[in-house]
User: What shape does this take?
Amino acid sequence: MGYVDLHSHVLFGLDDGAPDPATSLAMLDALASLGVSEQCVTPHQKASQYLPAWADVETAFAEVSKLRNPRHPTLRLAAENMWDDVFYQRAIDGTIPHYTGTSAFLVEIPRQLMPPGMLDRLFQFGRAGKVPVLAHPERYHQLWDDDALARSLRRVCAFQIDLGAIAGFHGKRETKAARHLLELGLAACVATDAHQVGDLQQAAAGLAWIDKKLGHAAVVRLFDHAPRAILSGELPD
Assistant: This one.
């Protein structure tokens, strides 16, 4: 057993993550050293920027799966879905890319604008047995000074905090928000959101901050127990 990372850009040649197979393997080396035993690979599905065909995503997943060695984390395919027109249509069609074999999926929203009707739509996903996971809520401006809104959102989705933000690498305001959500108890889980090898050093620093400020039990809950619960179809408290 080990940690479960629900968010990374390990697959090469698809988005702003790993550019080549060597980088993918170097990232898996670093993830193994961090103690990750299951790695969810989540390439962007973002209409305005990165929208690789799903067949290409599956090909990259198969290639990295063949290249990984036994000490590397096992891999699970998913996607980082931007809440845009493509996502909206996929929600209607029932074709949102999920964490393979689960009822959970990862979604992000624009930094400065919460999509209209988002709370209700997330509630409807939950009623349909889905587990929406909101990537890096510390980035979203509307949550920075509105704990009531954060609590309302958290009731209908899991908040996944970036470890690099906790450690102070993503901007002062983002760090403040990430730590605040952790201290309020609104963070469901943490993830590396690794795009390159150096991001894993930042992730280690984020884990160290949690260990020091909240205790090692919080590290285990946020980076092991809660991610496993999400993959089993549960929305953590």
In short: The two ends are 22 Å apart (CA to CA).
